[in-house]
Specification:
This protein has 284 residues and is an alpha/beta fold. The chain has helices at 11-22, 48-54, 65-72, 76-79, 92-104, 134-144, 160-169, 172-187, 197-220, 230-235, 237-247, 255-266, 278-281, and strands at 4-7, 27-30, 43-44, 57-60, 83-87, 108-114, 127-131, 150-155. The protein has an eight-stranded mixed beta sheet with strand order 3-2-1-4-5-6-7-8, with helices on both faces. The longest helix is centred in the last third of the chain and has 24 residues, at 197-220. It is elongated and about 60 Å long.
Length: 284
């Protein structure tokens, strides 16, 4: 059982430590402050040098790549010969910089991302994806699957996980804002926001069904014969403003999207797939 060290005891870090303890791995933890409790069964180290030295697999779950490097720098000498995995947000450039930083200190490196909430860590369908050397991923795959059974290697380039993390993450805030706007609308009528959940879930299922055709249109550049035409979205702009007035809502967050739709229609794209907006999102 590979000894594992968890750097960072936020919600995800704590969940990972608990999963490794439950799976029987010797588990060492370290956190910048003493305020976070030690997960039962884990060994806590006060010095990060000691924590890194205790694990063959060192998993850093801090906020950014820069934060991970700063926290680990005092333990640079202990990293040699170990595998460092980062599970944080950040840019592809940050991942590349961290890969080079780890190599200079003699450590192997995989960048990764957890695509689920802390309570789902360790479940068979919880997705984590990684980028970096395939041989390194294969060597640790069984240990990595303790964190989630849907474990994917994206490619050899160390920045691919950060690339996909930001690409996928771009849907999160607009989706949540859309739900919160709906919650504000129904709650203004005295209805509970919870009454939306069932219908929102069905709506999201419909959107999921659209994704393959949207991706195919982007990949081929063929925006004819759409399932959802851009013009339909453009025609809905006045309704966004009207419901804002009726519901007493601030709908100004829609304006950048409305601007994209107006420019696309001005380019003659009204009858094309909504996927053609990708052409406006791509800067020349």
């Amino acid at each position: 059982m590979t000894p594992v060290t968890i750097i960072g005891l936020g919600a995800i870090g704590t969940a990972l430590a608990k999963a490794y303890v439950a799976a029987g791995h010797p588990t060492t933890v370290w956190n910048r402050s003493a305020s976070r409790p030690t997960p039962p069964g884990a060994v806590r180290m006060d010095r990060i040098e000691d924590a890194v030295a205790a694990g063959d697999l060192v998993i850093a779950i801090l906020t950014t790549f820069e934060a991970a490097r700063q926290a680990l720098e005092p333990a640079a000498g202990a990293l040699a010969g170990r595998t460092l995995i980062t599970l944080n947000t950040g840019t592809p450039a940050g991942a590349r910089e961290t890969a080079a930083w780890a190599a200079e200190r003699g450590a192997d490196f995989l960048a990764g991302a957890v695509k689920n909430v802390p309570s789902n860590v360790g479940l068979p369908d919880t997705l984590l994806y990684y980028s970096g050397p395939r041989a390194l991923f294969d060597r640790h795959q069984e240990t990595l699957q303790v964190m989630g059974g849907d474990t994917v290697h994206l490619g050899e380039e160390p920045d691919l996980s950060a690339l996909y993390e930001l690409a996928v993450g771009g849907t999160l805030l607009p989706t949540i804002l859309g739900f919160l706007q709906g919650a504000a609308l129904v709650s203004a009528r005295g209805l509970p926001a919870a009454s939306l959940v069932r219908y929102e879930a069905k709506w999201l299922e419909m959107i999921i069904q659209l994704l393959p055709s949207l991706a195919a249109a982007v990949d081929t550049g063929d925006y004819a014969n759409p399932e959802s035409s851009l013009g339909i979205f453009h025609e809905g702009i006045p309704y966004d403003h009207e419901i804002g007035r009726e519901g007493g809502l601030d709908v100004s967050w829609h304006e950048p999207m409305h601007d994209l739709l107006r420019r696309a229609v001005a380019e003659g794209r009204a009858d094309q797939s909504i996927a053609s907006l990708v052409e406006l999102l791509r800067k020349p």
